[in-house]
Amino acid sequence: MTRDRTLQQVMPWLVVIGIFLIWELACVGFAVPEFVLPRPTVVFATMWEFAGPLWQHSSYTLLTTLAGFALAVAGGVLLGLAVGSSPLVYHGLYPVLIGFNAIPKVAVVPVLVVWFGIGTIPAILTAFMISFFPIAVNVATGLATLEPELEDVLRSLGASRIDILRKVGLPRSLPYFFASLKVAVTLAFVGSVIAETVASNEGIGYLMLQASSRFQIPLVFAGLIVIAAMGVIMYFLFAAIEGRLTGWATRKTEFAAGS
Q1: How far is CA 222 from the centre of its chain?
Q2: Rounded to an integer, what distance in angstroms lies between the CA atom of residue 11 and that of residue 14?
């Protein structure tokens, strides 16, 4: 068991190192120009050279992403509770949610610029819009999967609708909720970066756009690696919280197993 657990912890690092190694050898072996696909060693050297701007812009992106994600959690939980606990609300709002999620968020950013101007608010709202749907749907699904027989038993024991929701429905939906958080937080980064490439003068998206316009492709890849790293860190953070709070429903093969 100890050997298997050690292997599980080491395997992600081995895979990442292997990917970078294959990338490096492919660029060298096929003599790929740096402006097309820079080698990982060049990308990491660029990250060291531009550590200051990368830190500044990544901090901005992280803050806007977390702000939009927090709004998505609050709104998604509330709407998910309403949709999952009421068939009438479900049939009324679920088609609207699907239609809202189908709208390309990049097409909404120019409208947000008209309303709020260039800056932080469009990035926060885009992160909110792109990460809101999975939270609301998963919370609603968790509540809707409550067995009717269990609900009938609780009602026969005198439990009110609020009691069933608070003591059974909410704990039952926690695994769905945390599963949605792990997905939504990565989507929130996508929303922030999309908005920053269109309507911002700060952030990783803005930095990558400026770098690409000057053909600084290694800096573009440095920005991509920074975004990926932030997304992985946030994912495993919520996986660790999930393992602590919903260990009874978490399979040992999940990422949260090492928490």
Answers
A1: 20
A2: 5
Nearest to 83, CA basis, from 31, 150, 142, 41: 142
In angstroms, the CA 111 to CA 125 distance is 11
Indicate the Cα dihedral angle 15, 16, 21, 27, nearest 10°: 120
How would you write 41-77 as a 3-class SS string? HHHHHHHHHCHHHHHHHHHHHHHHHHHHHHHHHHHHH
Would you say 129 and 142 are in contact if contact means Cβ atoms under 8 Å apart?
A: no
Greatest extent of the chain over all pairs of C-alpha atoms, in Å: 74
Q: How many CA atoms lie within 13 A of 156 on its CB side?
A: 6
Buried b / exposed e across 116-143, counting CB within 10 Å, b at 16+? eeeebbbbbbbbbbbbbbbbbbbbbbbb
Position 180, amino acid: S
Please, are residues 178 and 235 in contact by the beta-carbon 8 Å criterion?
A: no
Contact 24/39 with Cβ under 8 angstroms?
A: yes
Secondary structure class of 208 (helix, strand, coil): helix
Q: Per the CATH hierarchy, to which homologous superfamily does domain 39-258 belong?
A: MetI-like (1.10.3720.10)
pLDDT surpassing 90 at residue 226? yes
pLDDT in tens, 131-147: 988 898 888 887 777 66
pTM, full prediction: 0.83
Token pair, residue 138, equals 């998963």
State the pLDDT at residue 148. Answer: 63
**Contact predicate 191/128, CB 8 Å:** yes
Helix axes 217-245, 204-213, angle to 10 degrees: 160
Structure tokens at 220: 């573009």
Please report where in the chains the tokens 């009938």 appear, as a residue. Answer: 152
Name which of 63, 61, 105 is nearest 205 in CA terms.
61
